[in-house]
């Protein structure tokens, strides 16, 4: 395969600012968390620790719908892999670690802000039980990065089950390299779908990937998460969330919400995420056609049929996740209308997505002294609540049972944009205490001590963050 050996850039004075101790323990990485010097050297790529030979991976991808035949790791180095305590191997990658043969004129660097955003958001998703790549460390490089202004550079260490993306397959399809494609299929099955029989299971692989991505997207939808750059190169076959560019959590609900400054047409808006994932899966299916041992026509018809099954699963998984949020476990009940009524009511009344689910259960929380009064007093919210109460009664679901189900999936706290921005702003000024607090708060999203209630507050209009940037 066309991955290229290469090394991170030399940085004179890297400095570790975040180290994910628990994750390090899970990965079996035995490093002294107080040895800042060593951590700074390792997580800036100055000292090789995970293997002798770092790599930049080759991949292509559809970016905003247009095919780019060669993307690849232009600012990332795969440093090696480790076996974690769950028995699985995890890849360790530095991002922002300097140019590679895939940089295409880019500087290979990242400002500190996006590195911190990736750390915060991935840590939050993990604790919200959403499949995700994780962040092990963030260092500052000590060097300036030139964007619309100068920023201090940062490197995030990403931990992923693998970095195989839909774009990896597209790369080898485009250069007609069937043997690498086969190797990729085998690798993907071995790593992520060992339950499949390697022989003859291309179609099964496609379905399994589709079902995993369906689960992933339904989880994103259920927490108001907007990935922001769902290009095919940013969609991992492991079904883990990958590539945290301009991603963000929604405050007040809107179906068509977009944060990314570059997503002018809203291609990757909240409501488009399921259909875009299916679009990406169609691109994946196209790469598999030559690998199926049937005629091309037959292969296309089988893959199309599989895609239809996956689309049905998308609807089911979405319904599943959203029902749980209303305290309903059994989706045999016809609750799609109920969910849509709720979402439409939220949008019409500009209510906060996360807190509105908490407000539905306001009586069940022992105390609810944080910012849900506005929601509870909203007339249309109250009307919906009556409708939902009737529904639960009709289905013989007690409020206690509904609460038991819902409290496991309705977070009290998410990394709201205005908090993330403050954390980043302060970090640029060498003040990391707010960042550390935010990280500790989002690590426990379903429980919240009273003194942490301020973290549940939606932004005041002056605090609203309307645009996010990917920092490339
Ligand atoms: P991303 O937005 O991280 O998904 O990046 C899309 C593509 O652009 C990938 O191939 C990246 O490696 C590449 N890229 C993004 N930023 C840079 C940069 N500063 N220097 C070099 N390549 C970059
Ligand atoms: Mg990417």
Could you describe the 3D structure shown?
- The chain is an alpha+beta fold and 472 residues long.
- Among the domains are: 4-160, no CATH class; 325-407, no CATH class.
- The chain is built from 15 helices and eleven strands.
- The protein has helices at residues 21-27, 36-42, 112-127, 166-174, 178-192, 202-223, 273-288, 296-325, 336-348, 353-360, 373-377, 379-394, 399-406, 417-428, 433-442, and strands spanning 4-5, 15-19, 55-56, 61-63, 66-68, 76-83, 89-95, 134-146, 150-160, 225-226, 248-249.
- A five-stranded antiparallel β-sheet has the order 2-8-9-7-6, with helices on both faces. It has a two-stranded antiparallel ribbon with strand order 1-3.
- A hairpin with a 2-residue loop joins strand 4 (61-63) and strand 5.
- Helix 3 (112-127) packs across helix 14 (417-428), helix 4 (166-174) runs antiparallel to helix 5 and helix 6 (202-223) runs antiparallel to helix 7.
- It starts with a strand and ends in a 30-residue tail after the last helix.
- The mean pLDDT is 95.
- Bound molecules: adenosine monophosphate (AMP) and magnesium ion.
- Adenosine monophosphate is lined by residues 71-75, 103, 106-109, 229, 233-234, 243, 245, 470, 472.
């Amino acid at each position: 395969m066309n991955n290229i050996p290469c090394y991170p850039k030399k940085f004179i004075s890297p400095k570790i600012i975040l180290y994910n101790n628990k994750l390090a323990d899970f990965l079996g990485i035995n490093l002294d968390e107080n040895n800042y010097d060593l951590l700074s050297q390792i997580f800036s790529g100055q000292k090789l620790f995970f293997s002798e030979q770092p790599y930049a991976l080759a991949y292509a991808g559809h970016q905003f719908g247009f095919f780019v035949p060669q993307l690849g790791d232009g600012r990332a180095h795969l440093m090696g892999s480790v076996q974690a305590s769950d028995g699985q191997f995890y890849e360790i990658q530095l991002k922002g670690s300097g140019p590679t043969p895939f940089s295409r004129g880019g500087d290979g660097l990242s400002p500190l802000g996006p590195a911190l955003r990736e750390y915060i958001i991935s840590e939050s998703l993990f604790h919200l039980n959403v499949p995700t790549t994780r962040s092990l460390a963030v260092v500052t490089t000590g060097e300036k990065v030139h964007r619309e202004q100068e920023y201090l550079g940062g490197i995030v260490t990403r931990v992923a089950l693998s970095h195989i993306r839909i774009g990896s397959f597209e790369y080898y399809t485009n250069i007609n390299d069937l043997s690498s494609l086969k190797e990729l299929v085998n690798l993907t099955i071995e790593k992520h779908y060992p339950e499949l029989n390697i022989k003859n299971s291309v179609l099964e692989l496609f379905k399994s990937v589709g079902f995993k991505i369906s689960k992933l997207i339904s989880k994103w939808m259920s927490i108001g998460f907007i990935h922001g750059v769902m290009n095919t190169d940013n969609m991992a076959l492991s079904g883990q969330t990958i590539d945290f560019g301009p991603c963000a959590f929604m405050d007040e609900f809107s179906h068509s919400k977009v944060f990314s400054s570059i997503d002018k047409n809203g291609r990757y808006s909240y409501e488009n995420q399921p259909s875009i994932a299916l679009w990406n899966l169609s691109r994946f299916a196209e790469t598999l056609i030559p690998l199926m041992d049937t005629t091309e026509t037959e292969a296309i018809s089988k893959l199309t049929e599989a895609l239809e099954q996956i689309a049905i699963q998308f609807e089911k998984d979405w319904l599943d996740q959203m029902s749980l949020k209303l305290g309903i476990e059994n989706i045999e009940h016809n609750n799609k209308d109920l969910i849509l009524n709720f979402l439409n009511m939220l949008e019409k009344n500009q209510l906060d997505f996360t807190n509105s689910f908490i407000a539905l259960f306001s009586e069940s929380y022992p105390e609810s002294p944080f910012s849900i009064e506005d929601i509870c007093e909203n007339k249309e919210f109250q009307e919906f609540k009556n409708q939902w109460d009737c529904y639960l009664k009709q289905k013989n679901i007690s409020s206690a049972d509904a609460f038991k189900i819902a409290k496991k999936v309705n977070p009290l706290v998410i990394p709201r944009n205005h908090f993330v921005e403050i954390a980043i702003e302060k970090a640029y000024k060498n003040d990391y205490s707010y960042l550390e607090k935010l990280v500790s708060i989002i690590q426990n999203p379903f429980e919240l001590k009273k003194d942490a209630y301020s973290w549940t507050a939606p932004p005041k209009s002056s605090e609203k963050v309307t645009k996010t940037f990917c920092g490339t």
